[in-house]
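Notebook p. 47: complex prediction with D-xylitol-5-phosphate.
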Amino acid sequence: MRTNPPIRIVPSTLSADFSRLGEDCAALEAAGADGIQWDVMDGAFVPNLTFGPDVIAASRPHTSLPFEAHLMVQAPDALAARYVEAGCGLLIVHAEACVHLHRTLEGIRALGADAGVALNPATPASAVASVLDLTDMLLVMTVNPGFGGQRYIATMEPKIAEVRRMIDRSGHDIDLEVDGGIGPSTVAGAAAAGANVFVAGSAVFGHPQGPAAAVAKLRSLATAAHTGEGSDSPRD
Ligand code: DX5
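Predicted complex, structure tokens below:
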């Protein structure tokens, strides 16, 4: 593994209060989050419909945290510029939605944003082997995309480890993100497999002690899994 890739906790707004998105973004910054993920869904690539660029733009002034757009959409090329204009510095497209993934990633970088690629559970790591030079983030989905609050798919951990090996062999500085069912009982397994960026929605907004406690717990457990130190427990 790249010597200690930085641990980043990136809550998803999919579980936020949609009537208070600006305030919830400010609360995530106060809670110590490292960024915010917007789950953009078009009702076609996934069976749900969520945030247009104007919703994200309206939330942009409420926080200084970096925004990333997880584009779960059938036509990311047509939408990319609008999400960059809305304030997203990282656009994550699905390999399954891109007929010309190499060109799509070039296009995102030409817009001045970082480029990420997401892999659904059934998509092999080899799908991105030829575009690592154009990639800043690889996202291994640990649920089938479309909804928050789903069960973590633990059988994705060997794929996380394979993607980590690919990244380390490539010599490129690429983050490995996981998304879906990430919480106190699953984050350590994903971290031990090689993930360094963790997206969590329901585990953050549903935490009984609030987002700050959730973010701190996830960070502590992920760090312990990377370093092999600490006796933190999911139940603390
Ligand atoms: C699925 C979404 C979710 C979301 C996180 O399409 O991408 O994974 O970000 O949801 P939780 O953390 O509630 O599983």
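Notes: The first strand starts at residue 8 and ends at 11. The CA atoms of residues 22 and 61 lie 8 Å apart.
Next step: compare against the earlier run before touching the bench.
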